[in-house]
Every structure is written in structure tokens, then in C-alpha cells.
Amino acid sequence: MPIHPTAIVDPSAEIANGVDIGPFCLIGPKVRVAEGCRIGPYTQINWTELGKECILGSKVILGTDPQSYNWTPVDSWVKIGDGAFINDCASIHRSTLEGESTWIGEGCYIMSQTHIGHDCVLGREVTVTTLAGLSGHVEMEDYSVIGGAAVVHQFVRVGKMAMIGGQSRIVQDVPPYFTVVGVPAVASGLNTYALKKYGMAPEQRKQLKTAYRTLVRSGLSVKNALAKIMDEQPDTDPVGDLVEFIKKSSRGLTL
Q1: Cα–Cα–Cα angle for 148, 151, 153, nearest 5°?
Q2: Where does 196-248 sit in CATH, by number?
Q3: What pLDDT sits at residue 199?
């Protein structure tokens, strides 16, 4: 049965044909669910748009009010891309800003007992591991990963294909392609697994390794290391991505 008889679905919620809604779910009025979604028991959804083929475990909470002392209630949302997986007891809060959304990209893998705060933006195929927590306004770019029980401070940016080790504390931006770990976190190398998985060429990996050494091991300030990289290395991906990320950083870098 696509919608279990014990589920409560507001008549104004937009539910596509064939969506599977489990026992004792609560689906509010400001909800859209696209075709192919499966929603586990006891899940609560408000102010949320779910893309196609999303899978939600049991006791997931989506679109609840942001945890912000000064928040004034406004119309805002959680928007989730196609093919996202969100496991048991995960919570994702809607934006603090009128008309805006907390964004979860296509194919994201959100594990059990995780929290994604208001106004976060997750790119494509981001992984959030069990017990990890993202404070408000955190950005995680495509294919990045946060390990179990790690936490990220407000307004931090995590670059694409970056890896945050389990139980780490992140208070500054994590450069793309880096692996960082610790309390407080420091750089421990490149995320070579992701570089190979997503098809980065050996020559590009070599260029990136040189840039990493300049930033982390040369003893130069970030400003001088960046100047050296820009002077000596090609302004192409992935080094170009790294340079642009550093230029836009306002919180400092996890190095």
C-alpha cells in the first residue's frame, strides 16, 4: 500500500503517484514529494520539496524550524535533489531567510543520527556520516565527505572532494581535495581515494600534490604560498579550483 493508513498527510501536500509513505508518518501542508520516493515509518516532513527517487529511513525529520535564537517565522524550505538517501533519525532544518532554502544536492548520502542546520548547502553526492553535525550556513561542495561524529562550525566551507576525518572539529574552511582530521583539525594529505574515484588524471594529481606541499609544508604564509602556486603552476583544474577557493575564503583555512 503506497500510503499506510496510519500516516497523516495534509490534503494540500503534493504527493506524486506511487510514493510509498510508511506507518505513522506526518506530512505537512508545505510539502512536495516527487515520484519514486520511499518514506520510512514515523518520519515527519514540513516545508520540504523532495526530488525523485529519494529514500528516507524511519524517524527522519525534515523542514522543522531553524535553531536560531533571533529567528522570526517566515516561509522557507528544505529542498532535496533526486536520488538522495537520508537514513534513520536524521534532521534537516529549513532556512532562516524568507523564500530561501536549505539545499541537499542530488545523490547525497545522509547517514543515521546526523544533523544539517539551517541554510546549509550540500552539493552533489555529499556524504554525511553517522553522528556528524553541520551548523547553520555550512557549505559542502560536490563529492565531499564528513566522517562520523565530526562537527562543523557556522559559515564554514568544505571544498569539493574534501574529506573530514571522524570526530574532527572544523572551525575554518577545508580546501578542496584535502583530507583533514583532529581537534582542532589539520591537513593530513590529499583525498587520493576521491581523486582516483572521480577520474582525476595522474598529471593533475601530481600538480595538486605540489600545490598541497607549498600550502602545508613550505613554511610560507598562506598569502605567499598562494602567490607561489599562482606563479609556478598552471591555472587549470584542479589547481585553479584550489586557488579560487582560497581567494574566496573568509574564515581562514584548515592547514
Answers
A1: 160
A2: 1.20.1180
A3: 95
3-state helix, strand, coil in the chain (%, to 5): 15, 30, 55
* Domain locations in the chain as residue ranges: 8-137, 196-248
The residues of the chain scoring below 70 in pLDDT are: 1
Residue 232: count of CB within 10 angstroms of its CB: 11
DSSP string, 218-250: S---HHHHHHHHHHHS-SSTTHHHHHHHHHH-S
The three cell numbers locating residue 91: 534532521
Amino acid letter, 50: L
Distance of CA 130 to the CA centre of its chain: 13
Largest CA distance in the chain: 66
Over residues 167-209, the pLDDT tens digits come to 999 999 999 999 999 999 999 999 999 999 999 999 999 999 9
Give the three cell numbers for residue 176: 578542496
- Alpha carbon of residue 160 to chain centroid: 10
Q: What angle do CA 159, 163, 169 make, to 5 degrees?
A: 95
Give the CATH number of domain 8-137: 2.160.10.10
pLDDT at 1: 59
C-alpha cell at 205: 594529481
Please state, in angstroms and rounded to a whole number, the distance separating the CA atoms of residues 147 and 126: 11
| Alpha carbon 94 to its chain's center | 14
What 205-211 contacts at long range (C-beta under 8 Å, 24+ apart), as own/partner pairs, is: 207/233, 207/234, 207/238, 207/239, 208/177, 208/238, 208/239, 208/242, 211/239, 211/242
